[in-house]
Design goal:
Number of strands: 0
Shape: globular
Largest sheet: none
Number of domains: 2
Number of helices: 14
Radius of gyration: 20 Å
Helix content: 55-70%
Strand content: under 5%
Distance between the termini: 56 Å
Length: 280
């Protein structure tokens, strides 16, 4: 039996207010396909020249487009990244993109992550969807261990200033470091432990920093956080940087100044095109 909530309705006047064009309530449409492909070609080619692999430029581009909030462009990226590839490779691409999108919750917020992940899911061929894991891997079975994973990641990114930053967050609001460590760095940004299915994808420490830089740069207005995560990327290859010996293709170039420039300039070019900043 329907309850009182089912009878609630919005007045036409309120609906019109919510839908005002000045509120920019809709996602950003994709640029013409040829322009998106040309930019992705440049990003991929320059990255491969430095030695990085598909995982890196796909993660970078996905984080940028989630933050800019262009679900149509996310679908263009998937089509570009899977063109001419076999099913196992396409499933892996989808897994990388959806895991990247999930981690973007920390940097761009829940609503954009929901809308862009929904668009990606609706765009995927059913045989790719069938190959993706359906089992959650971030259930809070061991809260102390979850906190420790988050603190380890935090320390790997922010040392030697890690505790100072925690204290500063606590000065702003006593629950801020509690929430950031226990809701973001622990269960979301650090990778799940234990067995992960064959078609799940653990991004790892280095790619998590790539995502952070891309999402924050695309967001604009948060330069100090971009700087912090650039340091975090460079620290990831150090003995106590949190990568735990896991390497990715081309990581030495990626953490160099040339690699970081490629990352940031790629984000700038892609986000500017999608937003229409290049239109005269």
């Amino acid at each position: 039996m329907a309850g009182p909530a089912s009878k609630l309705k919005l007045s036409p006047r309120l609906k019109a207010l919510i839908a005002l064009p000045s509120a920019r309530g809709s996602a950003i449409p994709a640029p013409p396909l040829a322009k998106t492909r040309a930019i992705l070609d440049r990003i991929r080619t320059a990255g491969e020249a430095g030695g990085v692999g598909r995982d890196t430029w796909i993660s970078l581009s996905t984080a940028t487009l989630f933050t800019v909030n262009s679900p149509e462009s996310i679908c263009q990226l998937y089509d570009y990244a899977t063109e001419g590839n076999e099913l196992p490779s396409n499933i892996l691409t989808a897994a990388i993109m959806r895991e990247t999108g999930l981690k973007c919750i920390t940097f761009g917020g829940v609503p954009r992550a929901i809308n862009n992940l929904n668009a990606l899911r609706a765009h995927l061929p059913e045989n790719v969807v069938d190959g993706l894991s359906k089992k959650p891997v971030r259930e809070p079975h061991d809260i102390p261990a979850l906190y420790q994973r988050g603190r380890n990641l935090w320390d790997g990114i922010y040392e030697p200033h890690a505790q100072k930053l925690v204290d500063k967050l606590g000065d702003s609001h006593p629950d801020m470091p509690v929430h950031i460590l226990n809701s973001h760095y622990g269960p979301l940004l650090s990778d799940p432990v234990g067995h992960v299915g064959d078609n799940d994808f653990r991004l790892g420490r280095l790619l998590t920093s790539v995502i952070a830089i891309a999402a924050l740069r695309a967001q604009t207005g948060v330069g100090p956080q971009v700087t912090s995560h650039v340091f975090g990327l460079k620290k990831a290859v150090l003995p106590d940087g949190g990568a735990d010996g896991r390497e990715i293709q081309g990581q030495d170039w990626l953490v160099s100044d040339d690699g970081v420039r490629w990352l940031i300039e790629s984000v700038d070019e892609l986000s500017a095109e999608v937003r229409g900043d290049n239109v005269q």
